Amino acid sequence: QVQLVESGGGLVQPGDSLRLSCAASRFAFQNYALSWVRQPPGKGVEWVSTINHHGVKSYSDSVKGRFTISRDNSNNLLYLQMNSLKPEDTAVYYCESGSSRGQGTQVTVSS
Question: How many Å apart are CA 95 and CA 79, to the nearest integer?
Fold first, then answer.
């Protein structure tokens, strides 16, 4: 069974940066596309970014230019570097691979 464990969330001020990590196990990590999604309070899950197995990246318009997705296939790690954070980025952030999703990490952006 695929296991995904996110970390790195926290409480930050607008304009700050955070880097989220996702540790993956129990599957051939390097062969799969990986994504970050988020769920703002009281709202549904929304897609943030995807990196495919070739390293091609895509971003939602709301984070393009501020967030950077990356992967370390040697260590089965997925990252999301988040810069210039805004209050509207407040959400639980999840990493996904196929139908598997981690437990999430809370990001709160507030002054």
Answer: 9
Pairing state of beta strands 91-97 and 105-109? Answer: antiparallel
Task: Determine the number of helices (DSSP H) and then strands (DSSP E) in the chain.
Answer: 0, 11
Helix or strand holding residue 59 (H, E): strand 57-59
Q: Two tokens at 19? A: 């880097």
Identify the CA nearest to 104 among candidates 11, 8, 29: 8
Count of CB atoms situated within 10 Å of the CB of 98: 11
Give pLDDT tens digits for 19-75. Answer: 999 999 877 788 899 999 999 999 999 999 999 999 999 999 999 999 999 999 999
- SS3 assignment, position 63: coil
